[in-house]
Amino acid sequence: MSKKDLDGGDLLVRSLLSEGVKYIFGITGGELLRIYDAIYRFGRNEGLDTIMVRHEQNGAHAADAYARATGEIGVCMGTVGPGVMHLIPAVASAWADSIPLLVIGAQVAKIFDNTGIIQGYIDQMAAMKPITKLQISLENPSEIPEAIQKAIKTALSGRRGPVYLEFRETALVRAASEEDVNKIQGSQQYRQKVRIKAKDEDIKAIVNLLKTAEKPLIIAGGGTLASEASGEVKKLSTNYMIPTGTTVNGIGSISRDESTYVGSMFTLNALRTAASKADIVLSFGCKWDYTTLFGDVPFWNKNQKLIQVDIDSKEIGKNRTAEIGIVADAKSVLRQLLLEMEKSLPKEKITEWSEWNDFLQEFYIAELAQNEKFLKSDKKPMLPQRLVLEIYNFFPPETIYTIDGGDIMAFSHMFISYFSRFPRSYLYPVGMGHLGVGLPYAIGAKLAKPNNPVVAITGDGSFLFSAQELDTAVRFNLPIICIISNNSCWGMIKGNQYLNYGKRYCDTDLPATNFAEIAKSYGCYAEKITNPDEFQGALQRAVDSKRPAVIDVDVSFEINPARRMFDLYKKSKGLYG
């Protein structure tokens, strides 16, 4: 590539290569062609490729999953107007869960502003502002290297999240210089990772408070995974016999492999009992939102004291007053805390806390035993509880699950507490509760971790939000397995109508579609299952096919426990008067 051939598209691709970016998820467009041309000419040879999806929103979801599975930044792209607008729901979902995304959008050249040119009249910067940490609009190639560096550093710093770079067409088509190329730096040159520590006096205050604790409880959130602190969580929990649960975003930071784990869903007796009886709660990187029932009564004890550690100061004391609030990195604080506890915590506390943990483990073991009744059920259509348990029993612990839908999502969350999990192996859009993420998440996760089995668990309603991405899975030969829990309804909403609206089912029943036939038309391996006893064989055949696979399973409509619990909470707050 000669000096005179260098343009903004080349400079952008060079910048992304220097950052170690492997994939850009999106759909091409006229204003983006200089980027695609650079990838064609040299990007692919040097390690950067495009993943063409069939809808920009799904591209952003796939980039989100790539980031969730790796801890690295995901990159997605949309062309001017509709392309960028299609990205917005998925970017909002990443924003809600603090997922680092680099969102690239095209925009028409300034010379066409206010002329009525096609697609060039939307203020995309304003549209992205509420759901991104940073927005930069570029007009010239010379701005690109520094903008990429600033954007990625922002996305990965503090509370992580999406950033938006808008490329006016002039920034991509105009000539770039060798001087511009020299502005490109490797991440090690400008992005050293600095972990924010707690003050020594705050660590001592935590230990002094723990000395008074009879029934402590640890809650680990998504911040522990972002901080790569699962090892420290496990050490604190098991060394000191402190019962530990997680939020949904924190699943995998500790799991049933540890004798102190009490679950990741508040429908479970062990975790719910721990929350209601604990006198001191240690919260690491955990949002006190709906997934923890806001830390509120009747599920929590109003007299217990909260020790809250979070990288985002806005989360401290949100919905729940903190006795000690620390704005810092979870891994750093856990390391500091372990050192101080080793020095000054009386060892007899371990014996005391061990008895408290044994009490909670009785609930956990008893509920685990109850799962057998679901596995033995011969009900037709299949119980969704049995469906989920069959899946978790079949696949190995290193499997990455991407969770979608309403009812089946709640059952998936509930039963994952009884199976081994690794960090970054359970992906669900907690903040937005997006439907349609299962398949694009699976695509992003499989590209991120090609050696891990990847299984999408979705519902019949949610599947059709992104079913066209079966084409993407087939084109890239990604042997993901998509399992559809098909109860022919919008189950979560129908459950609400059942409980609160006298079974007046309005717009919640769906036709009994055979999704296996749809999947076969895309070139997938697919089966329709109506007999529960045939499900295990179908799973094995899907794995053996070594192709993208869809298993459409008829299940019964069941009210999930989360629906009942959330209704109970709303009623306790006087929502219904």
Would you kindly provide a written description of the structure presented here, covering whatever features stand out?
The protein is α/β, with parallel strands linked by helices and 577 residues long. It folds into 3 domains: 3-190, 3-Layer(aba) Sandwich (Rossmann fold); 200-367, TPP-binding domain (Rossmann fold, 3-Layer(aba) Sandwich); 377-567, Thiamin diphosphate (ThDP)-binding fold, Pyr/PP domains (Rossmann fold), CATH 3.40.50.970. The protein has 24 helices and 18 strands. Strands 2-1-3-4-6-5 form a 6-stranded parallel sheet, with helices on both faces. The chain has a 6-stranded parallel sheet with strand order 9-8-7-10-11-12, with helices on both faces. A 6-stranded parallel sheet has the order 14-13-15-16-18-17, with helices on both faces. Helix 3 (56-70) packs parallel to helix 4 (82-96) and helix 13 packs antiparallel against helix 15. The longest helix has 28 residues, at 348-375. The radius of gyration is 25 Å and the shape is globular. 53% of the residues are buried. The mean pLDDT is 93.
